[in-house]
Amino acid sequence: MPDRLTSLDLTFLKAESPATPMHVGTVDIFEPPVHGPGLAEGFDYESLVALIRDRIAYVPRYRQRVQQIPGRFAGPVWVDDEEFDITFHVRRSALPRPGTHAQLLELVARIMSRRLDRARPLWEMYLVEGLQGDRFAIIAKSHQALVDGNSTVDIGQVVLDATAHPKDTPTDTWQPEHPPSALELLAGVFADATRNPTAVLELARAELAGLTGSTSVREVLGGVVGSLVAQRHAQESSLHVKTSGQRRFTTVQTDLEDYRTIRAAHGGTVNDVILAVVAGAFRSWMMTRGEGVGPTRSVRAVVPVSIRDDEDEEPTSLGSRVIASAVNLPIGENSPVMRLHQISYQTKVHKDTGRAVSARSLVGIAGFAPTTLHALAARVATTTVRPIDDVVITNVPGPQFPLYAQGAPMLASYPVVPLMPGQGLSVGVTSYDGKVYYGLNADRTAMPDLAVFAQCVTDALDELLDTTRGSRNRASRGRKKPRGTTKKAGS
How far is CA 156 from the centre of its chain? Predict the structure, then answer.
């Protein structure tokens, strides 16, 4: 029998509305492939379609659609899409040459504002040509019901290789299975009820709630749908809005070495420094809006954290979990160093448990890539965010070496984290190949000044860097000159 959607998967489908599409995305920017023996001569739409066709066998869920149960008294199931058309999901777009980064961001915002077609497999991918310097972008989005990290990873990771030479893939002989009949679907419900009656009852209750509204699935989300608008934070904030169906998207690119410098000078982790940068950005941005940032003011962030299931267990694609951690960003604190120390103190609680997975371990997890980890983080955030939470921040470490798509080197990767109902901004962060990339997804109506917030991120990083200059100079003066060397004039 086909796999049944879990109660969590069903929650994402029920929570989706025109104002809150429940998909997570990525924006990857590439250079054309390098010419050479055994390398691709170029990259175009046909190349992307062929690449997906070769690799989609690794993610079979991406050829399946959601099938409802007759009467809807039980949860739906995943069935093969007999009319699967890869060219429907892999699409082509172009910017007027030479396309600017701002034009790309506007296209991303429009693509991410649209919900996925429920009658088909719940994903899309766009090749965007015409960027400056003969570059191109790949925009991918997958529904949160699709990527669970166990049976399904995000398709964005299977199209990337660690070298410019694409890996060999086995011949795909997939043939769709005929969808089960209504009688077979009902028989499957009774079989599941015999094996696990509690799970089936929970699914049926959730399905019934979506139809009657009597016991809403919103309660499964902790009152997230619609309640964030009605129940505001104790302090009025620009981050709590009436979410519209349209988005703005912008990006920030920074150097990973800057975060390491700050960490070396003030302690903590790179993740702590990133959160401190975001806290500084919120402080400056709210001040530009004329909002009060008194000494006790904070922004409550939901920050998903990957943990070990067992203390002796090594993190693997199936052995690590993602949980939600609440961090109060102290935007009322004037000193950037004190903001960092206060955040480090909060995050240290998770490290002291011995269960938090280090960034180095995350990068080495077999079968995981930043795209999948962001999807898992978004799933956790969706189900745990509460009315008092202001923003979701996902921070995923990526490989510190270049990745390739059919020989084309990836220059940048920006996550797109979905908005929760009533929230005006989500922040996704990925470190990759010596850089730290911020993807800022915002409600279009509520945040017309998203570019100002992006500039505040850069300014907050510079502010923290300025505090390390004295320590760097002291360290430099403390180094002993090697024996037998003299400083030459003009050197």
Answer: 11
The span from the CA of 183 to the CA of 178, in Å, is 14
* CB hemisphere CA count around 262 (13 angstroms): 29
Helices 270-288 & 450-466 angle (0-180, nearest 10): 130
At 112, is the secondary structure helix, strand, or coil? helix
417 to 223, 256, 345: CA distances (angstroms): 20, 21, 26
Give pTM, 2 decimals: 0.85
Per-residue pLDDT tens for 373-421?
888 888 888 878 888 889 999 988 888 899 999 999 999 999 999 998 8
pLDDT grade for 213, boundaries at 50, 70 and 90: very low
Euclidean distance between CA atoms 116 and 294, whole angstroms = 42
Residue 304: which residues within 8 A CB-CB, separation 6 or more? 322, 323, 324, 325, 376, 377, 378, 380, 381, 394
In 3D space, the residue among 426, 335, 326, 455 whose CA is nearest the CA of residue 386 turns out to be: 326
Q: Are 126 and 138 in contact (CB under 8 A)?
A: yes
DSSP summary character for residue 316: -
Give the span between the Cα atoms of 120 and 88, in whole angstroms: 9
Name, in order, each residue with C-beta under 8 angstroms of 437's C-beta and a sequence gap of 6 or more: 251, 252, 253, 254, 412, 413, 414, 415, 429, 430, 431
How many other C-beta atoms are found inside a 10 Å radius of the C-beta of residue 474?
A: 9
How many residues appear in the chain?
Answer: 491
435 near 233, Cβ under 8 Å? no
The C-alpha atoms of residue 470 and residue 467 are separated, in whole angstroms, by: 7
Q: Which two tokens stand for residue 328?
A: 């109060």
pLDDT tens-digit series, residues 110-143: 999 999 999 999 999 999 999 999 999 999 999 9
Using CA atoms, how far apart are residues 173 and 176, in angstroms rounded to an integer? 10
Question: Rounded to whole angstroms, how far apart are CA atoms 275 and 281?
Answer: 10
